[in-house]
Task: structure prediction
Amino acid sequence: MSPPTATRALLAGGLAALVAAATLAVAGTAQAATLFTDDFGDGDHAGWSTSGGSWAVTADGGPVLRQGGTSANARALVGDAGWTDYTVTARVKPTVFNGSDRFAAVLARVAASTSYYYLALRSSDRVELKRLVGGSSTTLASVGVPVDTDTWYTLRLTVAGTTLTGQVDGGPLLTATDSTYASGGIGLATFNASANFDDVTVTTTGPIPTPTEPTPSLSPSVPPTTAPPTTAPPTGPPPVTGDQPDGFASVEALGLAGTTGGAGGPVVTAANSADFLSYIDTLGPLIIQVRGTIQISSKQGVRPNKTIVGLGDDAEITGGGLDFYRSYNVIVRNIHFTDAEDDAVNVGQESHHIWIDHNTFSGAVDGSVDVVRGADYVTISWNHFDHADKSMLISHSDGAGSTDIGKLKVSIHHNFFDHSRQRHPRVRFAEPVHVYNNYFLDNELYGVASTENAGLLVEGNYFENVPYPIFSASGYADSGPGRAVQRDNVFVNSGVPETTGSVVEPGTYYPYRLDPAPQVPALVRAGAGAGRLG
Result:
């Protein structure tokens, strides 16, 4: 829901920088802060300054801002002249293109009504990153992308120093360097076109961390590769590679200010196993796009500073899995993991700052996602565990206390544990593990198990047909008891949760928003799993 009009006006005015600074101070990290957001849920577009066209809030599934005119330039502007480095994100749906080469766009660093940067969806099936100076436009970067009417697209435009980065639906990055505008607000625009706009968000662009530790070696099963891809990395601040992680993967720790993956590195595409294995074994930052099905065997090591993201809705890694051995700063998104002969994803051996998001897991012989052997600062979000057996193990053994106590901080949210049997998760030693806003459906053995003095907060989840939602006081199998606090959960045709003790609050590490538990099944069914990034 969008903030009330008064809040939007405050964020858009001269106090925006103070609000952002306060947000960072509360979070205690260097992660991004929200400067502005509007989903038009209050039925108006107060605070926006419009010119040209016909702007009004209307219904398109939910409330949206519609520009209905098709005969001229039309703009809606908001924000503060002092905003400098930030990302503006908006959903954009062109509805009519009145002629050839028309567009709908998002704007950044607006210096005047005819002077700004913009990212435009053109009717000529192109996305362009452009500069407008006194009404005269210059194309800074462009890429061919099919653009259709009556289709929603998510546009993301980042301005960081002199580096500009644009992206549509998580696709290819458009990057350019330009110093014409250093600051300014944001906007929405059309040129001889009508369009609907929704979910406008402006977040600060935080500093990209430089690890203080040397690049660690991978497991002996993965021989080192020193030659990087032939594509030269771009200069300047790294581009944004997609939505930012939350939870423990966003926390400033161990020399990192969060998890950025391959931001700043080349963008490559792997459509076969040889290329894929070469890319994940390359030194330095890299954004690896996975196209189609990649057949691998066993668990393959992933070096630090990588983003692995599936293209479209059918990217698949089958037969084997990904292994993190003293690795860090890695993002894995939008992949179907099928029939792994061991673990599908193994986060181990002191790896940290790993984000596993919007993937689908099925058929793994062992764990779907395991976090073990002193790993730390991990977020597992919006994944679909489809009839998995062992979904998620945190700490691999009752004898692992010497390596795991004080480590294994994991956030697990908005996942769909869909007829999966056990380990959602099963935890030893870790504290805190934050299990929130997940949908547990028909889990045959149990939902969550806290053992060996682990500390879990289980909140805002929806348990349906789960005979044993939470184990803690009695331990599980041969493991001794743990600690678990449960609150604000819904239990439908499920057993009584077993809880005991107190747990460190995850909110002391990071801010988070809790969705109401009754809404979780619909939210998670609609959004969890591969192919659901939009």
